[in-house]
Amino acid sequence: MLRSRAATAIARTQARPVQGRLVLRGFASTPAFAEETPLYDFNVSRGGKMVPFAGFSMPLSYGDVGQVTAHKHVRSDAGLFDVSHMLQHIFSGPGATAFLESLTPTALSALPEHGSSLTVLLNDEGGIIDDSIMTRHPNGAWYVVTNAGRIDEDVAHIKKELEKWEKDHPDQKVEWKTLDGYGLVALQGPKAAEELQKLTDYDLSTLKFGQSTYANVGKDKVRCHIARGGYTGEDGFEQISIPPEAAVPLTEEITALPSVELIGLGARDSLRLEAGMCLYGHDLNESISPIEGALAWLVSKDRRTPGGMKGSDRILRELKEGPARRRVGLEIKGSPAREGSKIFDTEGNEIGVVTSGIPSPTLGTNIAMGYVKNGSHKKGTPLKVEVRKKLRDATVRPMPFVPAKYYK
Predict the structure, then answer these.
(1) Any idea which fold 87-178 has?
(2) Is the dihedral of CA 35, 148, 123, 127 positive or negative?
(3) Is this structure's pTM higher than 0.90?
(4) By CB atoms within 10 Å of each CB, which of 80, 181, 303, 333 scores lowest?
(5) Is residue 36 annotated as involved in ligand binding?
(6) Mean pLDDT over residues 267-287, rounded?
(7) Protein fold of 35-84+182-273
(8) Considering only CA atoms, which of 109, 114, 76, 78 is closest in space to residue 208?
């Protein structure tokens, strides 16, 4: 059963205009109109510089704090991000696990209760419709988060696949709802656990990377879904899901903690790139397979059989023979490369394109992510990147660029 936000997404799929789109450097192309998250007024009151992103009005930064300063605060202390624009789903019923597995290449049934996994939604050709975090709850229920910029596509895809599932598996019912009005915040940084612990009696030291729980948080003991992990490469909690009535007051409590500062999308983008994380619409799209996207580890071994997943012919072929292109990390000398910069081999042959690029605040070097022809993807391979009509020296580097500090 769908709730209003997902139903609205289906309507938007049919009615959203394609003209009047804005492009923000480092972010997805977004409509010129935007929806508000449950924390919109809170963000504005805290000096949030609001910009349209993935169909929502989101804070690029706060007050006079620059992106580099905000970025470094997350690396040294703790930062809170409003990620309420992402769509939160609950799947339940006897067929929920098998249904979600039918959409992905990952053996979700092997996850323990309260375990989470990154995975991808596949189209019939083995391309990536979206990336997602899926968390197994007791009694066969699942908490799933998908990207805001793909709400229309994800909802339409899930709706279509669920209709087929119900027809083919009448005895394996699936109930689907979205958590409309819920807040979703991410608390990231080396002091994230220390600070959040001040607001809950739950022993967060027992919660490891990739695990989740329900815990009472704040003076009003708000029951929140909390998942340990992070898009920044730091320790922290990428998902703190807050019921609608408590979204603002609990976020205020968290940001009042001594080491916590509000962080906007600008720093989130540079942090995730240092961590080697993809941004859908830039580093992933429907033409890219998990193998091309350096996400082969999401394709579980017991799914690697003909017909074992959507697009299995292509995915199995690429696993065996190698894909035509591969996602790589790059270090670039001179000026930083931005999305769309062409990549060449040392003989001047065009072999790929940059999908994300920044001057790294942590490393002090220019880093990027992009796709190159198979064979030019090995660590240490010298390449050239076109920046402002000049070819700059580049080298293939392993990702993450900044070592992950997950709590395991």
Answers:
(1) Alpha-Beta Plaits (3.30.70)
(2) positive
(3) yes
(4) 333
(5) no
(6) 98
(7) Gyrase A; domain 2 (3.30.1360)
(8) 114
